[in-house]
Amino acid sequence: MSDESPNQLGTPTPEELREQVERTHDGLARTVGAPAPEGDLAAQAKEKAAVVREQAAAVREQAAEKAAAASDQLREKTEQAARAVKDRTPEAVREKTAQAAAQVREKTEQAAQAVRDRTPEAVREKTAQAAAQVREKTGQARRYAADRTPDPLLEKADRAATAARANRAPLLAGGALLVAFLLIRRSRGRNR
Hints:
Order of helices and strands: HHHHHH
Shape: elongated
Number of strands: 0
Structural class: mainly alpha
Radius of gyration: 42 Å
Helix content: over 70%
Strand content: under 5%
Number of helices: 6
């Protein structure tokens, strides 16, 4: 029996075994180096997209929670400041402020009545027409500005206006205190 010829029992020779091992090795190398089937890539992309969506939702939720917390803190601080101003304002100052506001209202009404009494009817009609035109032009300008203003800026302005409306009392109290302070300062300046 020779090493080169197949034996009678059908077992391969060492040379045939080497060739078979090389063929198997080459086949495995091609399989490992080949790209993944397209179905696997699509599944991987869907998995990654789902992970990214979950992460984005978590970030969005955290941002919303932080914004709500900041808003609550701001509202609480504003209320505390308003209470502090009210608590520190003596009753006499509040009364004087109310009296001054009533006097300003009364003087304004008297001045408006005097202007109405002295103004001829034709001038009042022209004034009313001009006021209507101004209101119309203002509405047009407001619509034009709203059309040209980016949505994020409109949303921020709306939130600021809502916050101002929600905190109207502290803002009015602060304004009244400022007026009272200025009136007291002015009256003290005249007394000297």
